[in-house]
Amino acid sequence: MANQSEPLLLSADDSDIDHKTRPEELTFDNIVERSLSDFGFWQLFQVLLVGLALFFDAQQIFITVYTDAYPTWHCVNHTICDHSTSDICKLPRSAWEWDGGSTDKTVISDFGLECSSSLLRSMPSSAFYIGAIVGGFFLAFIPDDSLGRKKLVLFSNFAMSITSISVVFSTNVWIYITLKFIIGFSRSQTWSYALVLISERVSTKWRPRATMIPFTFFVSGFMSLSGIAYLAQHSSWRYLYLYTAVPAIFYCIFLYLFRLESPRWLHLQGNDEEAIHVPLLMYDSLGRKKLVLFSNFAMSITSISVVFSTNVWIYITLKFIIGFSRSQTWSYALVLISERVSTKWRPRATMIPFTFFVSGFMSLSGIAYLAQHSSWRYLYLYTAVPQYSIVSSSTFSLQGLCHCPNRYLAQHSSWRYLYLYTAVPAIFYCIFLYLFALESPRWLHLQGNDEEAIHVLKCLSSKNKAYLESLVSQLPVEQETSEELPRYSIKDFFFRKWAFRRIVVVMIILFGLGISYYGVPLAARDIDVNIYLSETLNAVVELPTFIITPIILERFSRRSSVLVNTLLGGASGVLCFLLSVFRKTGIAFAFELGTFFCARTGFNLMAVYMVEMFPTCVRSSAIMMFRQALVVGGACCPLIASIGRDLPSVSFAVFGVAMSGLGLFVLILPETKGSSLCDTMEEQEKRDQAINTSHC
């Protein structure tokens, strides 16, 4: 039996320790490093499953680019109407009509906002980001040890998906704005949860690669959105929400059924045996994966509800709910993925969900194009329904409610279809997530469930099953209960000087990256390029970052990588502005892509860096604050981008200066390359002291 006076979890990187010759040094960290060192198929499956949450998250972030766009129109009475010179708001309604003859192609035409103030037309998008900000701060106060990694990822995705489906039923713009706020709130921490879960499920060796996986899904979702929107461009905007939300519902169900908790979290909960033998399917207690599931499911359901919006206020309300629901999806998924891979694979594994995010964004263009003759309501439905297997019944009910024959829907699509096309698949994703996702072993360890955490490790690494089985008899008989274990929350950042300093510096850097990442695509219209082409290329340039990021992390230090990347991105933004002034449009757009590429790369680098700087007990809260800074930066983008309409492309200079200037703060942060993950604040402090002493 192991020495009970020795802590089960240490912070040193003991992945190379021979456990057979040195059994007296058996620690939970050694167990995790050894059992997850091979990064086998099941471990990869778990990373992919959690990372997929960011695919649907990306679609909800960028969906308003298509659903809330100002549709094209043409003159009917040419005696009083001239399309090139006439102001649509000064013409009689009988003198013009929307192209395609459909009044519900986008939110603008469906709710009659063509002559409304720009403030009202931008409120749905603003409500989404406000919901993400509010949700980020609110959910950050949920202690890391209360729910678990997997339940947070599940809840975030489920809530986002359900709310996204609800957008379909918006009857006015205020309901739509409210639902967008809820969607932003729900998915505000999805990225954080997923990254932490992934990083804690891989060894130190694989962490740089594993953490790139969710980012890859994010980009994939971003890219897929263009395709979905393109395919649904003749449909109602509501269908775009459905097409992105429904698959997320099925994903949540799949995540709930097949995910495992973080073995490290189980260990910290005192359940060492469960950390080794965690069941493959669903669990009674909350954790990382359920939050991912709930977030996607709620987003998908709300997105489907958008289809039934009867006015712009209902639509706005549902958009608020969608933003609320998916506000933490990114956080939940990233936490769950990061905690389920070893340190070796973590950088690569955490990039997978971001790839799905970009794929989701790209698919949206295709869906929107296919649904361009359908109602916008179906685009919500087709992205939400696949999350909980109600696609058939929803389709029939929607046809009954809308009184739209199939032939009519195919030829005269509304903007509602775009919501449907993006919401329905998300429902299926929720189901898949519910069935197959595993909880974070580190989160289970933190909850004292070391036995369950080891169960998870066995499921993730069948190659080391015999070794893990032998550990059960060596676990301490008497373990601390979860009530006896110390509790940590976001308040610990304010009581510990080193933690407060780190989180503030990280948020400053992410604020600069957020301004550039969200602002560059928004300002691309100032360079006079096709919106479909520019958004697609912006999504495409994100994909190479997930290959480059692990290489950079494995060869160079964390600080130098972030510093050089932000300086290059800042220079590219300034050059884009200068070339635009001299009307070198083609070259300027190339530098615009370069700026966006550096912003994405910097985001990837900081995601891995962030995971390694904070212990398991507060990692979710740290990632949430990380995400909040990014969202706050994104919320400032519309204002900065609007400046570019008065002074062409000056916004790119602002983005570049913000990225490079704020990126200099990385010099204050400690280097973490090659270090394993700590589980408690005390362990983190001891390791930092040891590193500082060795450098003296």
UniProtKB/TrEMBL annotation:
GO terms for molecular function: transmembrane transporter activity. Keywords: Membrane, Transmembrane, Transmembrane helix. Residues 46-673 form the Major facilitator superfamily (MFS) profile domain. One of its GO terms (cellular component) is membrane. Pfam families: Sugar_tr. It is found in: Membrane. It is a multi-pass membrane protein. The chain crosses the membrane at residues 39-56, 126-142, 154-177, 211-233, 239-258, 291-308, 349-371, 418-437, 499-519, 562-582, 588-611, 623-644, 650-669. This is Major facilitator superfamily (MFS) profile domain-containing protein. It comes from Brassica carinata.
